[in-house]
Amino acid sequence: MKSVVTKSPEQKEYEWKAKRHGKITASTLPDLMKTGKGTPYGKAFFDALYLVRYERRTGVTRENGNNKNFDWGHDNEPLAVEWVRTQSMYEVKSCTTDFESIIFNEPFAGFGDSPDFYVYGSDGKIRALGEIKCPISQGKIETLQFLNEITDKDEYYWQFLGHFVGIPSVDTLYYVVYDGYTNTGRIVAMYRKEHVDNIRKLTERIRFANELVECSLKTGFDLPACIELATAICPLRFQIEELKPNTKGNVPVQNQIRKLKKEINKLIAEEKAYPQHTIN
Fold it and tell me: Which candidate in 149, 182, 190, 242 could, as Cys together with 173 as Cys, close a disulfide (CB 3.0–4.6 Å)?
């Protein structure tokens, strides 16, 4: 009989960070969706992508840093999951502690997402995703007592939609506002069908942002200078993704993919910057 090796929380977190390395993640999506004056891409958009670019270029994981708010949320999240269990007739599993590895969903290249919990139906399938926020400010907790609907005005709106992008088969998300002072909370539901257009918009933005970082790395140009190139390449990438499921034993499709890849490489080669100077 094989012995079951249980990973320590530290090992699970180390592996999770490795999976996140160089990825656009749901927590960065609010910044990724910000626009600028007269432009669809604001400073926060580029700042978020510079962090992603840094990780891909150097292999060094970005440092997010801990603070009082982070520590409060980290300490209270397990308690929040337990509170959610008391509110549900269905099985609730923490995406951090109830699986062999911390959940990290990667629906397509360059993006990954970790919800806080899953809610399972009687059929054993995931019926809802969960996101927990544990405000340390009692004033903010009180303000959120009046939240009944989540719209694009909410500071976490695009992060929540990122969970829907992460698992396209799930139609419900629960936003849990947990009060760590009283061990109580509020649950506000979101439904995919009410946000279809924005989920599509977000998905396109993530794919474009990922391509923008890749173009910058391959050409040596700054992110803003690569917008036109990334815009030209994205449709070609989409065509490749649509063709991939039909490649097995299909020579014409394989040839079409090779042709598209050559076209992408040609576009990049035409835009490459001169190498940086060095001190001799």
Answer: 190
pLDDT digits (tens, 9 = 90+) for 66-100: 688 889 998 999 999 999 999 999 999 999 999 99
Give the closest residue to 254 by CA, choosing from 244, 264, 263: 244
Contact between 162 and 113 (Cβ < 8 Å): yes
pTM exceeding the 0.70 threshold for the entire prediction: yes
Rounded Cα distance, 223 and 83, in Å: 44
Contacts of 191 (CB under 8 A, 6+ apart): 171, 172, 173
The dihedral formed by the CA atoms of 225, 228, 230 and 235, expressed in degrees to the nearest 10: 180
Which 3 state secondary structure label does DSSP give 191? strand
Three-state DSSP at 169 gives coil
Residue 48 contacts residue 223 (beta carbons within 8 Å): no
